[in-house]
């Protein structure tokens, strides 16, 4: 009923074509993936994306590439830095999602009435963060344009999040961006809090 078509055309499509259309952020491809497939990799995908983000942050620490002597005791501290970056990335993503949920619950309480509505939206948001996997080639093929690539990856993930919210709750284009904006405000608030505590974020 949400796509207002007699049948989902992607039922007959090859998975590669569906994936390409999802990368192009087509709403109908998102509907097919969320409602007509039995994908159950949300948690694994989330952890893997967080590991990629933590690794990128860990590499960007100023002292992570210095003093590579294997007998150096500081290497253990560097390993703990990676776990700390993973924890910070997890808290930031959690605060981003909380900002989205609070905004949508405040603006459209009728859309998020039951626990299953929240779970479906959470699954959609977790799946739509797949763009963070592009951090891997951005790190491997390190070059002068890496900050620009990271900015493009962030924008792509936000566009994917917007489409996931729009398709899941059957909303217009403006409200998902409004929710994402408040999610980013809450996420940046967490970043500022960590910086005030003196942590490298």
TrEMBL record:
Q: Which InterPro entries match?
A: Arv1
**Keyword Coiled coil annotated:** no
Q: GO CC: one term? A: Golgi apparatus
The membrane-spanning stretches of this chain are: 85-106, 118-141, 148-168, 174-194
Compartments, record wording? Endoplasmic reticulum membrane
Pfam families attached here? Answer: Arv1 (PF04161)
How does it sit in the bilayer?
Multi-pass membrane protein
Main localization (coarse): endoplasmic reticulum
Q: In its UniProt record, which GO terms are filed under biological process?
A: intracellular sterol transport; regulation of plasma membrane sterol distribution; sphingolipid metabolic process; sterol metabolic process
Q: Which UniProt keywords apply?
A: Endoplasmic reticulum, Lipid metabolism, Lipid transport, Membrane, Transmembrane, Transmembrane helix, Transport
What this chain does, per the entry, is described as:
Mediator of sterol homeostasis involved in sterol uptake, trafficking and distribution into membranes.
Question: Which family would the database say this protein is a member of?
Answer: Belongs to the ARV1 family.
Name the record gives this protein: Protein ARV
| Organism the protein comes from | Sitta europaea (Eurasian nuthatch)
Classification from the root reads: Eukaryota, Metazoa, Chordata, Craniata, Vertebrata
Instruction: Provide the gene name from the record.
Output: Arv1
């Amino acid at each position: 009923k949400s796509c207002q078509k007699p049948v989902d055309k992607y039922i007959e499509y090859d998975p590669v074509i569906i994936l390409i259309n999802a990368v192009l952020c087509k709403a109908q491809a998102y509907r097919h993936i969320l409602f007509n497939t039995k994908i159950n990799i949300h948690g694994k995908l989330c952890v893997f994306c967080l590991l990629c983000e933590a690794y990128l942050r860990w590499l960007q620490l100023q002292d992570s590439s210095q003093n590579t002597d294997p007998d150096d005791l500081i290497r253990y501290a560097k390993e703990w830095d990676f776990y700390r970056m993973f924890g910070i990335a997890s808290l930031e993503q959690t605060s981003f999602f909380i900002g989205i949920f609070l905004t949508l619950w405040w603006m459209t309480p009728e859309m998020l009435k039951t626990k299953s509505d929240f779970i479906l939206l959470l699954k959609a948001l977790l799946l739509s963060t797949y763009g963070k996997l592009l951090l891997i080639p951005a790190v491997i093929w390190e070059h002068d344009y890496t900050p620009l690539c990271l900015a493009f990856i962030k924008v792509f993930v936000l566009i994917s999040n917007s489409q996931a919210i729009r398709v899941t709750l059957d909303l217009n284009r403006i409200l998902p961006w409004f929710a994402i904006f408040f999610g980013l405000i809450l996420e940046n608030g967490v970043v500022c809090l960590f910086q005030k505590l003196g942590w490298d974020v």
